[in-house]
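Researcher: We're reviewing a set of sequences before deciding which ones to prioritize for further study. For each one, I'd like a predicted 3D structure that I can look through quickly. This is Mutator family transposase. If possible, include the structure in token form so it fits the rest of the review sheet.
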Amino acid sequence: MAARKTVPARVEPASQAEPDFARQLVDKARAEGLSLVGPGGLLAGITRTVLESALDAELDEHLDDADGVDPGTSRRADIRNGHGEKTVQTDVGPVRIQVPRDRAGTFEPRIVPKHARRLTGFNDTIVSLYAKGLTTGEIEAHLADVYDATVSRELISKVTDAVLGEMEAWRQRPLDVVYATVFVDALIMKIRDGQVANRPVYVAVGVSLDGERGVLSMWAGTGGEGAKQWAAYLTELRNRGVQDVFMVCSDELKGMTDAIEQVWPLAVHQQCVVHLVRASLRYTNRKDWQKITPALPEIYTAPTVAAAEERFERFADDFGAQYPAVIRLWRQAWPQFVPFLDYDAEVRKVLYTTNTIESLNARFRQASRRRGHFPSEQAAMKVLYLVVREKRNGGSITGRIYGWAKALNALILAYGDRITH
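Model: Here's the predicted structure for Mutator family transposase, in token form for your review sheet.
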């Protein structure tokens, strides 16, 4: 008798089969009055089935790899030995699962490791909430509300502390040899060191010769930084590989110019124009802003240094008697203000201001404001690193600068002998 042919079942393409399967699950949940999420929900049931199937498959593989047969009983050296129960926290809530055991007690599951009560995705949720500015108490309440999970504040701190090693490796990673620009900006945070005090945290962002932006490092300062301390910060960057920088852009930071000359003698120190404008407005009455704000852009959009000087003198004639502090501020900053005027308008947008890190600073402030103050410098830096890590994974602080090709051509004309690739 001829063998009967087995006709293989038609397999739906993944693009069609997966939506159909999802629809069937939703229909099943509705028909049986099941919730999709939460304890006892459909997704929890599916997660339990997947985890238990994976654990069974892991144990089968472990038993297959077990050596030999017990000579006394003529049985395999290791066999199944029932199940134990445990509850694990997952992205769909707490799930009660059956964990298979082996008689020899040598089975070490990888899907749900021994003693683990939270799967990786759950820890990622904790870290993400922490980076978004939630306190440990708020995270505890959120997890209880959304996942019906009891997670202590101590455990949340332990989970987030797991990134400290990663943060230290990030702060020591090698950097590029040459950067077109390094922006340095300051953020004020409340940190307890015996008593709660305002501490500056400095952030350095680099623009590489490929037009890629990235946070190079962060330092918690004391507020008394001078040339010696700034030289130490910049030397740290040089020791990590940065041998040359065309322009360092910052606010008026005491000792910064001297430190730049010591570490990167050929670099230009550029005053951040946005900070200069903001400082100018702090010295003026709000009722006069409608007259002052149109006048300031005429200075920093001037086509040449000579034109900028002429426009500034006109500004000084108009407002100097009423606001002498503003005029003094601009005169003091003038040597560091004018370098970017050597570039055309498109290049100035890239090089002249710390707008590049404004969005990052907004995220920093959001993450720190809700906490009031930090118990230690390490706790503050941990939160800021988590913000950087999230931005690095797709945020606006990273990625190639739009219109970089034009900027690079101008840089080649200006610094061609210092461009190494």
